[in-house]
Amino acid sequence: MDTLKQTSKWQSLVTELIKLPQETEWIEFKHNNDAPDMIGENISALSNVSALLGKKQAYMVWGVHDGTHELLGTSFVPSKAKHKQQELESWLLQKLSPKINFSFYEVECQEKAVVILEIQPASNTPVRFDGTEYIRIGSNTKKLRDFPEKERELWRVFDRVPFEEQTALSQQSKDQILTLLDYATYFRLLNQPIPENHSRILENLADDGIIHKTDTNLWDISNLGAILFANKLSDFKQLSRKAIRIILYKGHNKLETIKEWSINKGYAVGYESIIETLNLLLPSKEVIGQALRQEKSMYPELALRELIANALIHQDFHLTGTSPMIEIYEHRIEITNPGSSLIAIERLMDKPPRSRNEGIASLMRRMGICEERGSGIDKVVAQTEIHQLPAPLFEMDDYTKATLFAYRHFKDLDKEEKIRACYLHSVLKYLSQEPMNNTTMRERFGISVENSAMISRVIKQTVEAGVIKAYDTNAGTKAMRYIPFWA
Question: Going by CATH, does the domain composed of 243-408 fall within 3.30.565.60?
Answer without folding.
Answer: yes
